[in-house]
Each structure stands twice: as C-alpha cells, then as structure tokens.
Amino acid sequence: MESKGIWQGNKAFKVKGQASNYEVLISPEDESLEENAARPMEMLLNGIVGCMGAAMTTIMRHHIDKIEHFEITIDGQRAEAEPKVFTHYDIYIDVKGDIQPKEVKRAVKLAEDKYCSAINSVNAKSTSHIKLNSEAI
C-alpha cells in the first residue's frame, strides 16, 4: 500500500492514496493554513472509525437489514509532550434496530481484536462504550 504527499506550501500536503486514488489536504493546526485541511492525527482517528465500521458491518452482515442507525464516534487523548501520541481513546458505538445485544458485542470484540488493522496499528489503550437502542450494553 502506498500513499503520496505533494507539498502545497507552508505545512500542507495534498495526499493521495494509491489503493483508493482519493485525495485529501492534510496539515497540522496552524493559523496560517486553510481551515478545511484535515489534521494528521485526526486522520488516524478517522481511519479507526472507518475500519471499525467496515469490520462491524461485515461481521453483522446477516443482521444488517435489521439495523436502522449505526454511528461510531471516537475521542482520542494525546500525550502532553512530543511526540504527542494517542495515549487512550474511547470509542462510542450507537446502534438502533432489531438486533440482539450479543451480535453487536460480538462484532465490536472481533473488530477490535482481530479485523480492524487501524486499531491494532495505534499503540494506545482503548475503551468501547456500546449502546443498542439507547441502552448501554
């Protein structure tokens, strides 16, 4: 897998992934840069959300027609000193629909432990918070 970044000036790079051919403008937070640029560490969290969602929908594929709403939010905490790595992150999973709690829990566990490469690439502790039909499970 390959990704290429082309400098756009200041600290900004237009990054293009070889596998998807998708481009995104990435730059650290800086008052001299455009507001619409993604932040590098934000992109790591975005990758975890996308990977987690893809893994869970694959695992729950036999029940997917019963799901009315599925949302994943991630909140990462970073170290105070450089390098400001993620030290911990909380994943909030909100599912609504006629699906059994055990199916959602199973999907979360398999995604986190086995199938989501992005989670397993970030060396930080995590906590998952799961709600099914607005009830914590």
Automatic annotation (TrEMBL):
Organism: Staphylococcus kloosii
Classification via InterPro entries: KH_dom-like_a/b, OsmC/Ohr_fam, OsmC/Ohrsf
Residues making up the signal peptide according to the UniProt record: none
Name of the protein in question: OsmC family protein
Any Pfam family matching the protein: OsmC
Source superkingdom: Bacteria
